[in-house]
Amino acid sequence: MTKPIQILIVDDVPDVRNTIAGLLTDEGYAVCAVDSRVKALKALGAGRFRVAVLDVRLDEREASNQDGLVLMHEIREKYPSVAVIILTGYASIEMVREALEPDDKRESPAFSFLQKTEMDQLPECVRRASSRQQLPTFKPSQECEITIALEPRQRLLVRGRGNIRFTYTSTNPLSLDPARFMRLGSERMMGTLDRRFLIKETGQELYRLLFEQHSPVLNGYHRALGRVTKSQYLHLVFESTRDLAELPLEFLFSEDAGGYLALLHPLIRQIRRVVTQHTPISAEFIRHLAGSREKLRVLLLVSNTKPRIDLIDEIGERLADLLAPVSWLDLTYVRTEAATYSAVQEMLRGCEHHIVHYIGHGGFHEDSPEQSSMFFWEDGNWSGRVMPMTGNELRLLLQDSDTRLFHLTCCEGARAGDTSDLLDDDYLGIADGIIQAGVPSVLGYRWPVSAGRAQEMTLAFYRSLLRHGSPELALLDARRELAARNKDDLTWASPILIVQS
After folding, report:
1. What does the alpha-carbon distance between residue 430 and residue 412 come to, in Å, rounded to a whole number?
2. pLDDT, tens digit (0-9, with 9 covering 90-100), for 70-81
3. Most buried residue among 153, 205, 216, 493 by CB atoms closer than 10 A?
């Protein structure tokens, strides 16, 4: 059964609020009515609304109040898939101009502007707004990028791209014990109460070894910083071979730089000697699809196997609610009861979806990393055995796919084994198997995170992706959102993003 379209109503007058709610409920919409901008932003955080109907004056005691227009701009910035309808009893030429005047991209902040004397037109206006063809429009996602090539006992190479171009080579080789830092980033981190302290200490030491001991890297970083308008527009790319996949670069920390680099810039991994036939997900790629009358195809796989965690299914529901209304996106949503092992095999074999997002359990296999797995029920409706889908199998299934981003919301999806494991195995974990298949981008967690924090991270990531069209910026925004709430909860430090350009 199709869920009703959800509409947000924001008006501080109870009688008016109830009238609008009744009018739209009679039309079959699911309505949420609130009385303030603050409550509206909280409701929008759930990401479930296709249309927002806003009063302009949200405090009748203050004649100059225009919180509704402030909220209109906030919705356009944070929730671009939500169409705004202004419905006010105090219209002015200035208000109409602010709401409907197109910008340089020929877009208006509001879909429509009505006076409350025209309330009989509201149902038709909501119908048109909810079915509008919204083309993707993104803010600039990148002004500058520096790539730092890492190889122990070799000199570092740093390259600048975008609105700055340079190539520097350090004069001294990289003095780094990868195995020691990998231990700091995994087992030791997971089993101590001093995780926040250890992350900072490890990050400071890494910054000293990679930046401060190599003046070309530090100079290139500072030079690039001077060429961007915001720190988020400087992308940091660390290029290495597979043996450094577990190096905790996401911990990099410098007081002088302003803290954790992963909270300042999009921080990306790149693996050498991996061949991909496809470009990664980007604003340019999505706009190209729209220009060709195609949509960004997303496959959402939810698999709540043993131990059953109800929040796994809720993450899927909330993400589907966020993505389904976006007109330039085509969502295929497969719930747990239908996500059987054989069905998922067929969907991933030569997969035609640009983004595949798995939400479920994950497991890292210590003795044989290529056997690290996602899990699915053997039969439908939560029955049969629980079947592992390994990194080795994913490599074979995805090798001829059109997938550009594989998003792993599961435990240890991005964890990798040591290169000594390659003596017996071909792949170092789930993410490594996917990357070796030629998928340009993989996003996953280094260590287990709670389902509640995974939900926050997932929704924050996609809200930003809808704004920017950039997975790199989306992950940065999600990290920042979780760190702002509680920096001691280290979920923000766990994700690893690998992008092959």
Report:
1. 8
2. 999 998 888 877
3. 493
